[in-house]
Design a protein that fits this description.
about 30% helix; 4 helices; 5 strands; S16 Ribosomal Protein, Chain: A; five-stranded mixed beta sheet; alpha+beta; disordered N terminus; globular
Length: about 110
């Protein structure tokens, strides 16, 4: 049995993901907490860190990341692997590479 408010309230899915910023060949990424349905350039709820792929520099706000995870935000696969490598969360890494079309047809 549901309460009367459950029919009216909207459930907001939260995600922790990368947001690309910077120039074309010198891209850096923000780690942001945002709504799951928001576009890639939309406003975010909170900035949680930065990743510079060129210099391999990573800065994370550990307390705020753990706060958003406790509130139900799900990190993307890439962020999940980054948090494990930075030892913010524990667990197994998720394979994020895509299978080639040759590998997909062999399995079928």
């Amino acid at each position: 049995m549901e309460c009367q408010e459950c029919r009216r309230c909207k459930i907001i899915m939260l995600a922790i993901r990368l947001q690309k910023v910077g120039k074309k060949h010198t891209a850096t990424f923000r780690i942001v907490a945002t709504q799951k349905t928001a576009g890639p350039r939309r406003k975010y709820l909170e900035l949680l860190g930065n990743v510079n792929r060129k210099t391999k520099a990573v800065s994370l706000n550990k307390d705020r990341i753990l706060y958003w995870i406790s509130k139900g935000a799900r990190p993307s696969d890439t962020i999940h692997n980054l948090l494990i490598s930075q030892s913010i969360i524990s667990g197994k890494k998720i394979p994020v590479h895509k299978k080639s079309k040759k590998e997909e047809t062999k399995g079928v």
